[in-house]
């Protein structure tokens, strides 16, 4: 029997269509939540961090942490294991895009509707005003477009070349749409064959290699064919041969790998720089200081030590970024216009107590130090600070975070 994947826009009646297909075929539904839970169990990453891979917005720290790429690697492995161990499955949602196109027994379905139909359904089923519904649809479409681009390199998530069936639900009708999908799921063209089973094995091996490399801090494209693994480097690196040797050495030890080939891709000659993640140093440091030249120089000096950082110049911006993103360590000045450092520290420790805050100030008093430590600051340092002292303190904060997170 085949596998069905269903990708859809918001308010396209996908839930009703999928239920009818399940009733007609007896297939088991696999949701995004199930794939995320499997990926979290395999990786040890938190489910909410993995789920963020589906969103269009990327963390300002991602170029240092590769967290989105690592999440995608573990999602692929979770999907590959599902495909290897069972047929008669229907995957609905973002995860439906994870399998590669060459697995022949997967029926790829896209459910769509025009914007007027989607707005009308949003009002009918949820009672949403048109403006609010339009905003929800736009955000969901944006997330889906970014997700498809990440996996397939295609800008249009509804491109019919990605699917075996593109079904305009309002025109066809829910019942007919479900009947068409169930009928095509039994088509000889999507029957399980030895070649499609081999393609799943290749998908599983490439996903396993990806996760092994991710655990070592590397981010490259991986393809597998009967035990032959090809690694493609898409970001510029100064010592290419050294990186290729390191990658080949890591991958060559993965069970099932017979040979390793490395090469560079089309994006290699762009300005983006290849960065290996060093998990021993913090990669998500937020610098908060209104002295712009000082804090920009500090950020550059930390980056030379492989510590990824983002910079904001006032307390309000710091609190906004903490709400929207996931810094792990904050280096915080006390004396700033608007919301001062002590108030920022207080609010951060109330809302996100897991963030370690290092106070770095040129104007603080002993009383300020006592207040900050009582509020939960990790350390209290004075400007000018020796960069080695600051680096050591950052690493100690990072070690504490790693211990707490297991």
UniProtKB/TrEMBL annotation:
Response regulatory domain sequence ranges: 284-398
A GO molecular-function descriptor: DNA binding
Cross-referenced InterPro entries: Bact_response_regulator (IPR050595), CheY-like_superfamily (IPR011006), P-loop_NTPase (IPR027417), Sig_transdc_resp-reg_receiver (IPR001789)
Species of the source: Paucidesulfovibrio gracilis DSM 16080
Protein name per UniProt: Response regulator containing CheY-like receiver, AAA-type ATPase, and DNA-binding domains
PANTHER family: PROTEIN PILG, STRESS RESPONSE REGULATOR PROTEIN 1
Keywords carried by this UniProt record: DNA-binding, Phosphoprotein, Two-component regulatory system
UniProt modified residues of type 4-aspartylphosphate: 333
């Amino acid at each position: 029997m085949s596998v069905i994947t269903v990708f859809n826009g918001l308010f396209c009646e996908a839930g009703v269509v999928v239920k009818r297909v399940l009733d007609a075929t007896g297939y088991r539904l696999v949701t995004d939540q199930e794939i995320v839970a499997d990926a979290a169990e395999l990786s040890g990453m938190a489910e909410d961090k993995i789920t963020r891979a589906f969103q269009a917005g990327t963390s300002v720290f991602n170029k240092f942490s590769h967290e989105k790429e690592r999440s995608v690697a573990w999602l692929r492995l979770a999907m590959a294991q599902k495909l290897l161990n069972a047929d008669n499955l229907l995957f609905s949602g973002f995860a439906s895009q994870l399998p590669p196109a060459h697995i022949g027994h997967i029926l790829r379905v896209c459910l769509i509707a025009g914007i007027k139909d989607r707005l009308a359904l949003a009002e009918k089923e949820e009672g949403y005003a048109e403006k609010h519904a339009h905003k929800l649809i736009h955000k969901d479409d944006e997330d889906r477009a970014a997700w498809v681009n990440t996996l397939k390199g295609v800008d249009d998530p509804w491109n019919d070349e990605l699917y075996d069936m593109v079904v305009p639900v309002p025109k066809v009708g829910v019942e007919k749409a479900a009947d068409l999908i169930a009928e095509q799921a039994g088509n000889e063209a999507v029957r399980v064959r030895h070649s499609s089973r081999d393609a799943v094995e290749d998908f599983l091996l490439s996903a396993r290699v990806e996760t092994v490399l991710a655990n070592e801090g590397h981010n490259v494209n991986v393809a597998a064919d009967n035990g032959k693994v090809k690694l493609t480097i898409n970001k510029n690196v100064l010592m290419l041969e050294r990186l290729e040797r390191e990658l080949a050495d890591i991958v060559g030890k993965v069970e099932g790998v017979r040979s390793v080939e490395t090469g560079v891709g089309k994006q290699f000659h762009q300005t983006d720089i290849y960065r290996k993640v060093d998990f021993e140093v913090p990669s998500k440091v937020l610098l908060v200081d209104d002295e712009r030249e000082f804090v920009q120089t500090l950020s550059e000096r930390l980056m030379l030590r492989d510590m990824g950082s983002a910079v904001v110049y006032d307390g309000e911006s710091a609190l906004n970024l903490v709400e929207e993103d996931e810094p792990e360590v904050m280096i915080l000045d006390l004396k700033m216009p608007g919301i001062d450092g002590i108030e920022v520290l207080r609010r951060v420790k109330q809302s996100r107590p897991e963030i370690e805050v290092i106070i770095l100030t040129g104007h603080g008093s002993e009383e300020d130090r006592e207040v900050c430590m009582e509020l939960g600051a990790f350390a209290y340092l004075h400007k000018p600070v020796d960069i080695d002292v600051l680096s050591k303190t950052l690493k100690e904060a990072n070690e504490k975070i790693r211990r707490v997170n297991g």
